Every structure is written in C-alpha cells, then in structure tokens.
C-alpha cells in the first residue's frame, strides 16, 4: 500500500478505469448512491445468450461520481462480472471485490458494497423488465437497498433542513 492506504491495484483501476462510460445498448441498470459520503454509481449491463443458450453479462459499464475507492471498485466489478452468468455474477461479494484490488482501507470497504449493490440492482432491473424469476436472495438484497435509500434520503432531508435553518439565523 502507498501512503494513501491504497494498493497499487486500486491506483491502477483509478488511473485507468476499465469499462467506463454509458453503454449505448443495455437491458439492465443499477443506480445506487450514498448521499452521506457523496458516492453515486450507475451500472449498465447487457445480458444476452451465450452459445449454450445461457444468459450471460455480455457487456457492462458504469458511470461513477466518487472517491478513488468508489471508482476503483466500480472498475473492478465490471471485470469480475463481464462474461459471467446471472447466478455467477450474483455470487460476487464485497470481499471478492476488495480482494481483486489487493485490499481496501477499512474506511473505504463501503465502496465495495456500493459496487455489489449496483450490480445487484442492474440484474434485478433486467430480470423484472424481462419478466423473469427473481431469486429470493436478490429480492432480499433489493429490499435492503431500497430501505437504505429511504433512510439515507430521510436523514439527508433532516440534515439539509437543519443546515438551511442554521444559515438563516
């Protein structure tokens, strides 16, 4: 790790991110963010059939507004998920993301969860749009993400109102 606490692999993904940008043709979109720390991630997937007739993530890209760790985890999740089946992609967890980057500082592990959540939401979006069965584990993850969004939005509203009232005084 360098003096910032980031590994060489993290810095490589930050300086030259893989699969960055918006896919022109996508059929699943995961939008996640954390208004408290400011990280926002939109992850695009294009699912299509492979030669065996199974569905794979043929193409994947992202747009991230965030710190070094947010950009690096976004980049590496695309490497880990591209070419995988839906089930294989759903088995990628935050620890696999962090391991692929050679580790993350403890205060930045939430970025690996942001990447996993974006991938999960993109897969959920794909399955819902195409009227395909959604695994129970993914439904639970989606509900957790939705609950978190509501909690964060509610806290953020209170915080901004408090900040606004302080400015007026």
For the termini, the CA-CA separation is 46 Å
CATH class: Alpha Beta
CATH topology: Sufe protein. Chain: A
Name the strands of the widest sheet in spatial order.
1-2-3
GO biological process, one term: iron-sulfur cluster assembly
GO molecular function, one term: iron ion binding
InterPro entries: NIF_FeS_clus_asmbl_NifU_N (IPR002871)
Pfam families: NifU_N
Polypeptide structure, described:
The chain has helices spanning 8-15, 68-81, 86-90, 94-100, 109-129, 136-168, and strands at residues 28-34, 39-49, 55-65. By secondary structure, the chain is an alpha+beta fold. It has a single domain, classed as Sufe protein. Chain: A (Alpha-Beta Complex), CATH 3.90.1010.10. The protein is globular and about 45 Å long. The protein contains 6 helices and 3 strands; from the N terminus they run αβββααααα. The termini are far apart.
């Amino acid at each position: 790790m360098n003096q910032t606490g980031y590994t060489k692999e993290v810095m490589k993904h930050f300086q030259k991110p893989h699969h960055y940008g918006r896919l022109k043709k996508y059929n699943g979109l995961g939008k996640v963010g954390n208004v408290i720390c400011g990280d926002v991630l939109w992850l695009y997937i294009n699912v299509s059939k492979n030669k065996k007739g199974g569905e794979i993530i043929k193409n994947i890209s992202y747009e991230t507004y965030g710190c070094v760790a947010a950009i690096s985890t976004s980049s590496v999740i695309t490497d880990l998920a591209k070419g995988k089946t839906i089930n294989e992609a759903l088995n990628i967890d935050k620890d696999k993301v962090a391991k692929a980057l050679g580790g993350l500082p403890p205060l930045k592990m939430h970025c690996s969860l942001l990447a996993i959540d974006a991938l999960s939401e993109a897969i959920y979006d794909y399955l819902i749009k195409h009227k395909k069965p959604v695994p129970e584990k993914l439904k639970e993850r989606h509900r957790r993400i939705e609950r978190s969004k509501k909690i964060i939005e509610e806290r953020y509203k209170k915080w901004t109102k408090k900040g606004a009232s302080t400015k007026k005084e």
